[in-house]
Amino acid sequence: MIPFITDGEVGRLLDYAGVQQSVAAAFESLAQGRAAIQARQRIDCGGVKLSSMGAIWLDAAVAGTKVYPTVDGQFSFLFNLFDVADKRPLAVMQANELTRYRTPALSALVAQRTTQAPQKLALFGAGVQGRSHFEALVRALPLKDVSVVDVADVSRWCAAVSEEHGISVQTATAAQALDGADVVVTATRSRQPLFDGRWLKPGAVVLAVGTSLPNGRELDDATLARAARVIVEWMPQSSVEAGEVVLGRASKALRDEQLVDLPALFAGRAPWRTSPDEVLVFKSVGVGLTDLAAASLVWARRAAAMGEQA
Fold this sequence. Notes:
The longest helix has 22 residues, at 288-309. The chain is an alpha/beta fold. Helices cover 39% and strands 27% of the residues. The chain contains eleven helices and 15 strands. Helix 2 (16-31) packs across helix 3 (96-114). The chain folds into two domains: 4-99 and 289-309, ornithine cyclodeaminase, domain 1, CATH 3.30.1780; 103-287, Rossmann fold, CATH 3.40.50.720.
């Protein structure tokens, strides 16, 4: 019988560092032609959307698809994992935890490769993805100060994680948060820009992860115009889904020569950074390869744990 792996088990088996390593390996394979991405497909009917996205990763001998409905703005994810060496299905797993881990793990990977000793994080949005990004980044980077911007009162959460991690975490206005921020995360559902890009310090890295819709954006034209480069996961998908790309091109704030995707960076066809003063943007919409990288790690760790118990 094909096992069904719950979110609870997925959460117990994953950690941000492990997912980051798996995601990096998957993109290395993609850069070498040893992996492929299936772009997101969406259909809708009567206010209900159904989306699917997937990938093949030959070096790990796996393939898979994530499927999820969107109803009243709420998501529920499933992932179907296959063994391509043995030509058989391996598992069906709930994928809410996969999604919670894989996006911040990728953001942490990009931040590590584009920053040097960052100390201040500006976090816009303290929902599930915002808090997950905090947890991933505080483990991956030498952060000492975090300013959180949210429409809700998140002061109690800030106090709790400040004590837990031994760093300063406090609520702030957008201008206060961006003052001196080395890394900026936008993890909101806003379809309008969250701040004035002129407030970014030279050398800042902006990780925009909040929307995958072409008619919404968290970053303004000033941010895009200042960016030496805008990094995306995979150009075929990002060029049609990422609002920052679609709307930035339309407004002429974003030029094609600013754009580079992760396969090009992992293949060494472009550098991650050329100057310490460059403003860099990473725009994530979510791709099936990161889901597959996380799912394959769940399967490998579950198999190892069951072997130890046998």
